[in-house]
Amino acid sequence: MTVHFEARDHVAVITLDRPEARNAVNHELAADLESAIDRLEADDSLWMGVLAGAGPAFCAGADLKAVASGRANLSTDRGGFAGIVRRKRTKPIIAAVEGPALAGGFEIVLSCDLVVAGTDARFGIPEVKRSLIANAGGLIRLPRVLPRNLAMEMALTGEPISAETAHRHGVVNRLVDPGGALDAALSLAAEIGANAPLAVRASRQVIVEAGLLDDDTAFALSAEASRAVFRSEDFQEGPRAFIEKRPPNWQGR
Fold this sequence. Notes:
Layout: E1 3-8, E2 11-16, H1 27-42, E3 48-53, H2 64-69, E4 75-76, E5 80-81, E6 93-97, E7 100-102, H3 104-111, E8 114-118, E9 122-124, H4 138-145, H5 148-157, E10 161-162, H6 163-168, E11 174-176, H7 181-193, H8 197-210, H9 215-230, H10 233-243
């Protein structure tokens, strides 16, 4: 297996595990990562995921040896590149980034919902240096999270930005010392996990989808998400726990 899966309480820790290839994406890794996300989505006891990379790099992008060999099927039917960049899902995923996240590796990060990074992390889309373009979402998502001109500079020069720059512009939520990204991502997951999981998923859904909608359609989406949360058992538990002055016991239903 090229992807390791571990359940820790309500969190799935998913680790890209090809350190000898800097976690570069081949077909096996894409299929394994999609399977890991399937497992996260299907397990009601898991409320979110943390995605990390084994070894000194988060992910170097596409496996260029596979590309050069002509056997470059690096996507899945449902997930797109790496089995994740176009994967429809409901549960938040936090990227825990140590070292380089370049090309498709950065596009994997951009497909996650939150990012925690060590100060040694670097982010870039260097595809133009190889007569390629960042075709797995980088050219689409990067201008949504960075100022347009900075995104344009990264796309046209192929040069990466530091973790500090990514944090200053909001790509990275939390910046930590090298080696601390996974623990910090789990700490962030614990903060999220203290909240009602269905409300978290509904909030995520509205943020992901509303940015591409006009206001009226977006408000309708938000209202429908609210109605779904109101129908849940956890909606009754929240006020009850507040009145009884105790931590809520969320069930995720």
